[in-house]
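# nightly structure sweep
# worker-07 picked up a monomer target from the shared queue
# config: single-sequence mode, recycle default, output format = structure tokens
# input follows
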Amino acid sequence: MKKMVPFIVIILGFFLLIESRSQAADLKTTVVTELDLTTPTEEGALTLYLKEVFKELGSRTGIKITISELPKKRALIAADSGQFDGMAARIKGMENLGLPNMRMVGISHFTVKHVVFAKRQDIREYVSDTQSLIDGAIRLKYRVAFLRGSKKALLLLSTLPEEYRLIVNKPEDAFLPMQGDRLGAFLGGPGIVSKSILKEKFSESGISEVAVLSETELFPYLHTRHAHLIPKIEEGLRAMREDGSLAKIQKSIE
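# output follows
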């Protein structure tokens, strides 16, 4: 029996070591209080809005959330690969669009709008929705500019003939010729970005918002390793939506 004691002690020690390592691993997945989420570059006003939202959310949940700006495609890949902790704001269903490691937070924190801007009075009076924008371009002979890489704009303008389209790299590339009466309309999205640029740089141009063509909810996403934090973040965002904090932050940015 005495010979068995050292063996039993060794076995117990082994299982205690395994248990302690298991508890340590669990601790690593539950004690995360800082997250770094990606967002596309050059989305100034929207990025500023998101930073303010996550700052307020952090004060309510104890989870510090920062944002890293990356080129659009790289922002998606880096988040899904685990290099970052998730994505700050994307449309619903990204986990089914080639990003299997992303888990959506089920409370939307922003609604992105695609907005038509114009200077010409006849365009402003004619356009009220997508079809009238397309019909008006052909009837009134104007081109519609939209941002390079905007899948939503391409979808909305799918029936607009090529000769009436103009692809631009940034809103300024549309507002500048429009100010000089060389462009008819600009379909900008996110609308909050284009509106802030119009207000800051082209306030005396005579260009104004004409119509909202689409509204799409955006959601935060977390990497699967942080999925356990989603209920807490949802609770915080729900409270911010219900008490008007999200609307207040958006109004302060616009």
